[in-house]
Amino acid sequence: MGGSGSGNCYRYSKKDTVDGLKAIDINWLNRKGYLQPGRFFTLSWTYGGEPSGWIQARTEQDRLILEYRWRYAGGEWESVEEPVNLTWTPCNYGGRRPWFICPGVKAGRVCGRRVGKLYSAGKYFLCRHCYDLTYQTRREDYSGRLMLKAQNIQTRLGGQAGAAHPFPDKPKGMHWSTYSRLCREYEEYDTLSWIAVGERFGISLPVQNPHRRKNPRKPHRSSS
To answer: DSSP letter at 29?
Structure first.
C-alpha cells in the first residue's frame, strides 16, 4: 500500500491551474494558531459565495492530520486520513516560518517538497508539482498577464473586472494614498496590455485609458 498520492490519485492533464481548487495555506493556519499541537478544527471553502466543501483536521507534534471523504467520478465515497508532516525554518529577522512537507508519491518516489500550500486536485492534498498544476497568470501571454493584473485591481477595490465596467471608487476605510497607487498601477497595466496586443498584430492602438484618473486625491472639505 502506497503513501499519500500513490496509485491512481493523480489527475493528469495539460497543465491545469490552481485557480478554483480547494487549497490549504500553512501561513493562514499558523496565523490562526491551528499549528499548535492538540488543536482540532474544521476547514471549509466557498465558491461563488456558496459552500463548496469542508474537512476536519487536527494537529500533532510536527504533523497535521486531514480527515475527509472523497470519491472519484461519482463513485462510492471513501474515508481518507492524510498525515502531512510539518517543518520550520528560521526567518531573517527572528521567528520561524512553517512549511508542509508534501506527502505525494509519484513513480515510486516520495515528493518531500517544502511548500506553503497543498491543493485538492485528486484524492489527496498535495503540492502543485505533484498534480502538475500551474498558475493562471503563467498560462496567459504577456498582454493577458498584464490585463489580468489590471482586473485584479478592479476586483480588489470591490468592482467588476474588465474594461466594460467602470473603475471602482475608493472603498470605505482605504487610505487615499493606497487608492491613488492602485489607480496608477491599474492604468499602467491596462495601457501596456493594449500596447502588447497591438505589437502582436503589428498595429498601433490608442493607449488612452477610459478609466484614467489624474492623481485622485482626498476631496477637500469646504470650511463654513
So the answer is: H
> For position 6, what pLDDT does the model report?
39
| Of residues 19 and 196, more confidently modeled | 196
Grid cell listed for 220: 477637500
Closest C-alpha among 158, 166, 85 to residue 118: 85
Side chain identity, residue 8: N
User: Strands across the sheet with 22-25, in order?
Assistant: 22-25, 117-120, 125-126
Asked if residues 146 and 192 have their Cβ atoms less than 8 Å apart, the reply is yes
Q: Which of 52-61, 129-138, 166-175, 200-209 has the highest mean pLDDT?
A: 52-61
- Which residue ranges make up each domain of the chain? 22-126, 140-201
Beta strands in 12-129 (DSSP E): 22-25, 40-47, 50-60, 63-70, 78-90, 96-101, 105-106, 109-110, 114-115, 117-120, 125-126
Is the CA virtual torsion 179, 181, 182, 186 positive or negative?
Answer: positive
